[in-house]
What does this fold into?
Amino acid sequence: MEKRKPNILIIISDQQGIDTIAAYKDYFSHEAWLCHWLKTPNFDRLAAGGYSFLQSNSTNPVCCPARSTVFTGRYSSETGVTYNNVGIDEKVPNMGEWFESHSDYTRVYCGKWHAGGAWNYPDVEGSRKIPGFETIPVGMHGTGDFNDFQVSGAMKGFIMNYKEEKPFLAVAGLMNPHDICYWTPQLHGDKLVPKSDIFGLGKSLPPLPPNFNFGFKDPYPRSQVNFTPAEWQNYLHDYCRMIEKLDADLGRLLDAVDSRADETLVIFTSDHGEGAARHKRVQKWHPFEQSVRVPFIAYLPGHIKSNVFDQKHMVSGVDIMTTVCEYAGIPAPPNCKGRRLKNLVETGETKETMDYAFAEFQHTGRVVRKGDFKYVKIYKYSGNPDQPFIRTGDGKPEKFIPCEGSSRYETLPNKLLFNLKEDPWELKDLSEDPAFSAKMGEMDTLLADEWEKKIIPGTHFDRN
Amino acid sequence: MKNLNNRRDFLKKMGTIAGLTQLPLMGWAEGFSALLSEGVNPSGEFSLLKLENLLSGYQYPVAEKFTTDSFSSGYKLYNLYGGNAVFGGEFFLKSEIKGKNRLVDFSIWRMANSGIKKNQIPEFKYIVSGKVECKSDATLTPEKWKVCSRIATSEDGPAFTNTGLLNEGAARNGEVINKISGRQIKKSFGSMPLSWKWGLVAVVQNMSESSVNELQFATLDEFDAIHENQKIRLLKNVKIDCGKDLLIDFKVFELSGDGVLPTVYWVDNKNRTLFVISGMEAFVLKA
It folds into this structure.
């Protein structure tokens, strides 16, 4: 008799940079990394029992595009979700649909989906139901403060109560630490960010990062904010507490998983990171490490190696679909771009090519990570407005309006190069240095051959 | 514990909040404006700014002074979203003496579809309720509890798809032991005094009544997570003149520590916690 496949639990947080896990202190030793300013016993427990990828990237550091990749195994240029609130190409199956047609897994989604289109606000039934999944109706959007304990509580209930013979594929979409978005002046930061240390937090206020001030010309200053240092410190403090709240929610889910007699593969990641005052930035959208680099942990005690902190292999959200299919014993959907990670996380060996990773940002931005280097290239944006999207207010489709017009990327420079080993805070752009012209060429070739030529462009699709 | 099966009666009883009546507009808005115009804005008032849209119409609940051991209170929950306080649920707490201990009933429900248009999804709620046996001490040390949680469309409705949980737990010897669905989950909280998240509105009332200015403890969060290094301290005393002979002395307390955003409690001179404001969430005592 064939052995029962493991249950699969995917936990995805929102806006969590990689340095927010206390167990990673040895690998992020500078005191300004946030792992020195928070306590994450449950992330630490997950990391101790599992396999952490420290070179893990968001494939497109903003919610919908990144999530469309996680749940399809295709880059956002292929899902058609190159920006928030456009739907996944109907030709690209999501994880729930693929498991529905290729496995006997029970499929349940709880919490934030936001992988594009009308399903951003999923219904339990009807056209807004997330295709392929049964939806547990809590926490689809809103705030982590208000919703996350509902999501972790409901999913804990589901996991602990589940008694069917067939395995489950469950997703818990947690909002935090995305709440930090509302700490920005554009939203209502004036009501949420104290201008001084009014709460007497003193030494628990994190310091400003070394790249708070930086010298290179910034091609995309969108998410820069002019907080005072005191406001930034309060901002960082509250971001750390949001991570700790998220940690409690993670703990609930791990308690449920660990209490089961059968096996459950847990994959934890985040859709994108957070500016965290680096380069004076909030939020995401941009190609810098605080925006692109996210946690990625695989956990299956007895199978997946424990306490591994892999600094060598490059991974991203695109690798999740292929990997969960591998664990479920089913083929990955056609044209998936992800690597299969099962062998690597179980044995430490892999035949997959894992020495580079790609990301996109803001329609025409590209990021290549290889070795110690990060290469950023920004193509000129056509300003094509013919992309439908769904207004969140009334749910009706409208024309997509680029938020900063068609000239957004006409400001040069349009290329950046960083040596992340020597310059982890991305202070020195090497793209104009003749000594690195060969490296620039190598990265350009890699981008063209391994990414641009292999992409099958997708189109937006919305089932409203 | 049998009352857990009769939640509707419990909520109905709690909803009336014995002893509380309501006065017509008590000039709270004017008092609040005056407070700000006086430039008294170093700390606690920062938290009230988040409730600005709410306070203009707030009706000050009038009641006899709460005693520290026996009281009942009901709160409206607000999601501080988009710069405004938006209603999102309710919280009820009832404390009574049981021998040397206190027995606390609590119930909290939140809209499960926050952020979703109402007509797009049935009105699901995430409901947590239970009974907690506590010591009559400063932190209301929880000793035993029985807590239900589930998603449902009504207080009496069935749990949605496997989401219901019954958690029977106890804390002793630095350890929390929960029994859920026949499985036991243990967590350690060390040597710190223990409190519990939903009981903190009563803890600050205790502090106010007994003039305690600072407490340090660990908190039981949702009865299954522990946050250590919690500190509640008196931030300041504030007097608000709301007109019509209504002069309210507030003690403003602040909670900080692991896993919590700075949380401000406003306790009035009737020993009632009127406002709890934390991050993007606020609890406001019902009139």
